[in-house]
Amino acid sequence: MAEITKTSEWRSLEKHFEKIKNSHMKEMFEDDPNRFENNHILFDDFLFDFSKNRITEETKKLLLSLAKAADLENWRDHLFSGEKINFTENRAALHIALRNRSNRAIELDGKDVMPLVNDELTKIKKVSNEVRNGEWQGYTGKKITSIVNIGIGGSDLGPAMVCKALKPYGLKDISPHFVSNVDAADLSKVLEKCDPETTLFIIASKTFSTQETMTNAFSARDWFLSKAQKDEFVKHHFVAISANTKAVTDFGIHPENIFTLWDWVGGRYSMWSSIGLSIAIYIGMENFEGFLAGAHDADNHFTSSPLEENIPVMMALIGIWYINFFGFNTLAILPYDQCLARLPAYLQQADMESNGKFIGRDNKRVCQQTGPILWGEAGTNGQHAFYQLLHQGTQIVPSDFIMPVHSNYQLEGDKNNHHQILQANFIAQTQSLMMGKSVIDVQDEMRNDIKNNKDLRKLVSHRIFEGNRPSNSIIFNSLTPRALGKLVAMYEHKIFVQGVIWNINSFDQWGVEYGKQIAKLVLPELASNQSTKAFDSSTNNLINYIKNNT
Ligand code: F6P
């Protein structure tokens, strides 16, 4: 493929950008009473409204041509047919097989992977049922009441995000806990809440060599054995999910307690696999299957909807429009549902680890920006923190507002309409970001309060809102397992589409390796009695300062 920035499609977008870069969405809405009609997609109970973006019919047409020029439809076929598109690791990216509820054959190296996936699901079902119904007992015969998932990155963020989001579906007498940071504070705080007799540790690590996870796993085992005393009891309290069976066995986990993961499941795409065991235990297998079914719905939507009616495709194209043409380099994820508070952190890994890359598939440096800096916070908390910058800052932050119509929570006899207030805020934010507030409106507003014209002139400019700040609105019926599966899978495909257009490999993560290597060199320096001269002067002095003050 030709360098994407050299294609005629890209050049047409550049020209078009020059034409419309100063157009205001307010006028676009005034000019076209059908703007919403023409700029939203309905998919099951999902409404994706992208009308509050700085796009015209022409922009959409040109962006869709760009997707075609990047051969998106073919790449989508490569993804779904198990081709080894993660070429730097010679691996397929077959997370879609994990949630393939149709059970159609998906071949890798000429072999259907579905029997493997189904066997693993059967095992998840068996163990999750046993833990839930008390058949799985601790070493003193007690029922499990705490599950502790020890993992990091993709082996933590997904299960942690989902268990929080789907708490209303969770079993009341099992508490899920997640330990990821090697900072002892993380594990200690969880262990304080657990009893060795009733705790099940899930060691989740694809490689089973990640320093943070292994350190926490060894400490958890020490904590357990300090009470249980006998190694043979480990069997009742430790299970592992990994592609590295040997390392798991060496750690001392019973072979029956090992769940398999394959190299074709990337860490950040793994919560649909047995990495989701904590989810299945907490919300039950039926709900876990609902979650998978939601993702499968999104997969079908992605593969079968025309590009212009395809939510992940339109999300991706709009993102590209902002990042590559307007130079708006961040993306805010703003869920108006407290249960989705961890969604921004989850999507941060999904997006930034996938598309934070400067080398293209052609092994050359890319000529355009790639993945956005993704961040966010649950509404309305963000409103009282960083929305000032969203409304009046010099940088423009395209934002995704996400909200269910119905909340899973209702306060008894709720006389104060919590959810409606939340909804009103969601709508108000997207509307005011788009519309802005003009000088005249501000003057009219202020005239009643400030009679002195001089004071009025001084203050007006501070209260002006330029508007024209873009957002997507994603509204769905309620936060069910199925809806959550759909939502996350749509973001996965948005990330994929952007990676295709930028011609990068969205499925490796070499960028996280370098720091890990250096940490291994720093550790012995910190441990030795000598002052270090091994690194640059800043690094040496930081190490020596810590040592001198320990
Ligand atoms: O360091 C990044 C990373 O490799 C992620 O991609 C992955 O999700 C995480 O570490 C955990 O890896 P593992 O499951 O092998 O412990």
Walk me through this protein's architecture.
A six-stranded mixed β-sheet has the order 1-2-13-12-10-11, with helices on both faces. Strands 6-5-7-8-9 form a five-stranded parallel β-sheet, sandwiched between helices. It has a two-stranded antiparallel sheet with strand order 3-4. 47% of the residues lie in helices and 11% in strands. The protein is globular, with a radius of gyration of 26 Å. α8 (157-165) runs antiparallel to α15 and α13 (285-304) packs parallel to α20 (481-502). It has helices spanning 8-20, 25-31, 35-38, 57-69, 72-80, 95-98, 114-133, 157-165, 184-191, 211-228, 245-251, 277-283, 285-304, 311-326, 343-355, 387-392, 418-435, 439-447, 453-460, 481-502, 513-527, 537-548, and strands spanning 40-43, 46-49, 107-108, 111-112, 146-150, 175-179, 199-204, 238-242, 258-260, 330-335, 373-376, 399-406, 471-478. The relative contact order is 0.13. The protein is built from 22 helices and 13 strands. By secondary structure, the protein is of the alpha/beta class. The structure holds 6-O-phosphono-beta-D-fructofuranose (F6P).
Keywords:
alpha/beta; 47% helix; 550 residues; five-stranded parallel beta sheet; 13 strands; six-stranded mixed beta sheet; binds 6-O-phosphono-beta-D-fructofuranose; globular
Radius of gyration: 26 Å
Strand order of the largest sheet: 1-2-13-12-10-11
Number of strands: 13
N-to-C CA distance: 56 Å
Helix-residue proportion: 40-55%
Strand content: 5-15%
Runs with pLDDT <50, length 5+?
none
> In this structure, how is the largest beta sheet organized?
6 strands, mixed
Number of H- or I-type helical stretches = 22
> Rough shape?
globular
